[in-house]
C-alpha cells in the first residue's frame, strides 16, 4: 500500500499525482463501451458543477500526463458504479464490511475492504492538507476518490458497493466520489446528510457516516431515493450500526439488483450480533480487531477459488483520530498505527 501526502491546491495535488504516474511509467489503457462513455462524460459534468475542486484535481493529473481529460474523468466516474468490464471482473463486485459503535462516550469505526487481489498492489492511504478545505485521510484502491476516510473533525465516511441494474443508473456521483466529497465538505454526520440530499446520485450504494459525537447512520441510496437507517441501541444504551453489500431496510429492497454478494447478509447479521454484545468493560479496539479478523464471525474468510480477499482493514477512534491499519488479510497482517492525520490536524 502506498502512503501519499498532498498539499497546496487541488490542481497542484493532481499534478503531483500525475508526476508520480509519469515517473513510474503508469499507463491507463482505458476501454469504455458506449454506455459507460456517455454516462461517464455526463457524470463528469455533474462533478464539475457540484465539486469543482475534485474536477480540478483530476485536471491536474491529465495536464501532466497529456491525455484526454473528458475521457479520463468519464472512466473515473464509472468506478464503483458500472465498471463491469474491469479486468475479468464481470460484473463489478466488491465485498466490504463497515461498522461503527459508541463505547463509554467515544466512537469507534472498523472496516474490511474486500476486493479482487489484482487491486491490492495499487491501494493507497492518502493524507490531504489542501488549501481552503478539511484535512483528511482517504483509503482507496483507486485515487482521488475512495472507499473510506476520516477527516480532522472526527467524521468517518465509508461506502459499500450494492449492485445496480444498468437501466437504473443515472449520471451523477458514484460512491467513491461521494466519500471524497463528504470528507472535504462535512464536519458531522448531519452535515453529510444535508449535503447528500443535494447531490445527484448515480446508482445503488450504502454510505456509512459516523462522527465523534456518536451520531451513526447508514444512507441506503439509489439513483432516485435516499433512505436514512439509524443506529441500533444495545442493553447498555450504546449505539451500533453496520453495512455490507445489500440494502437492509425493507423500503430499499426493491431497488437491489443482486442482493447476495459474497455472503453479504451473513456478514451483516454476524457483525451486528457481535456489536450488540460489546460491554462497557470490553477494550473497544480489541473488540473491533476481533470482528475484523473473523474470530467469532464470518467476515474475511473467503475461499481461494473466489479470487477475492480482504486487502486492508481499518480501525479508527474518532475522538482522538488514532488509526490502525492492517495492509492485507487481517488474520495475518499486523495492525499498525498511522499518525499522519493526528499530526496534520495539530497544524
Describe this structure as you would to a colleague:
Helix 1 packs parallel to helix 3 (52-65), helix 2 (34-50) crosses helix 3 and helix 2 packs across helix 4. Helix content is 29%, strand content 26%. The strands form two sheets. The protein has an eight-stranded mixed beta sheet. Strands 11-12-2-3-13-14-15 form a seven-stranded antiparallel beta sheet. It has two domains: 2-78, no CATH class; 97-345, Penicillin V Acylase, Chain A (4-Layer Sandwich), CATH 3.60.60.10. It has 347 residues and is of the alpha+beta class. A hairpin with an 8-residue loop joins strand 14 and strand 15 (335-338). The mean pLDDT is 94. It contains nine helices and 15 strands.
Amino acid at each position: 500500500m502506498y502512503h501519499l501526502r498532498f498539499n497546496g491546491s487541488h490542481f497542484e495535488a493532481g499534478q503531483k499525482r500525475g508526476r508520480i504516474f509519469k515517473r513510474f511509467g503508469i499507463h491507463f489503457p482505458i476501454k469504455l463501451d458506449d454506455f459507460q462513455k456517455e454516462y461517464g462524460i455526463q457524470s463528469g459534468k455533474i462533478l464539475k458543477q457540484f465539486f469543482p475542486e475534485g474536477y480540478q484535481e483530476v485536471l491536474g493529473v491529465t495536464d501532466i500526463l497529456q491525455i484526454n481529460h473528458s475521457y479520463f474523468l468519464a472512466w473515473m466516474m464509472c468506478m464503483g458504479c458500472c465498471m463491469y468490464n474491469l479486468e475479468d471482473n464481470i460484473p463489478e463486485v466488491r465485498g466490504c464490511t463497515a461498522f461503527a459503535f459508541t463505547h463509554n462516550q467515544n466512537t469507534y469505526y472498523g472496516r474490511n475492504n474486500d476486493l479482487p487481489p489484482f487491486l491490492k498492489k495499487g491501494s493507497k492511504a492518502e493524507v490531504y492538507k489542501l488549501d481552503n478545505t478539511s484535512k483528511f485521510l482517504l483509503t482507496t484502491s483507486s485515487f482521488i476518490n475512495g472507499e473510506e476516510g476520516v477527516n480532522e473533525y472526527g467524521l468517518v465516511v465509508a461506502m459499500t458497493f450494492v449492485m445496480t441494474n444498468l437501466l437504473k443508473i443515472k449520471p451523477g456521483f458514484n460512491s467513491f466520489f461521494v466519500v471524497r466529497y463528504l470528507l472535504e465538505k462535512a464536519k458531522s454526520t448531519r452535515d453529510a446528510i444535508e449535503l447528500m440530499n443535494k447531490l445527484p446520485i448515480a446508482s445503488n450504494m450504502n454510505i456509512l457516516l459516523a462522527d465523534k459525537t456518536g451520531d451513526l447512520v447508514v444512507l441506503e441510496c439509489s439513483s432516485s431515493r435516499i433512505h436514512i437507517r439509524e443506529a441500533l441501541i444495545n442493553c447498555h444504551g450504546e449505539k451500533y450500526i453496520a453495512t455490507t453489500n445489500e440494502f437492509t431496510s425493507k423500503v430499499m429492497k426493491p431497488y437491489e439488483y443482486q442482493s447476495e454478494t459474497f455472503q453479504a447478509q451473513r456478514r451483516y447479521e454476524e457483525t451486528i450480533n457481535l456489536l450488540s454484545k460489546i460491554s462497557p468493560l470490553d477494550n473497544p479496539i480489541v473488540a473491533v480487531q476481533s470482528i475484523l479478523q473473523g474470530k467469532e464471525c464470518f467476515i474475511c474468510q473467503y475461499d481461494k477459488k473466489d479470487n477475492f480477499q480482504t486487502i486492508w482493514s481499518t480501525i479508527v477512534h474518532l475522538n482522538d483520530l488514532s488509526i490502525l491499519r492492517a495492509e492485507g488479510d487481517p488474520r495475518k497482517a499486523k495492525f499498525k498505527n498511522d499518525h499522519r492525520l493526528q499530526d496534520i490536524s495539530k497544524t
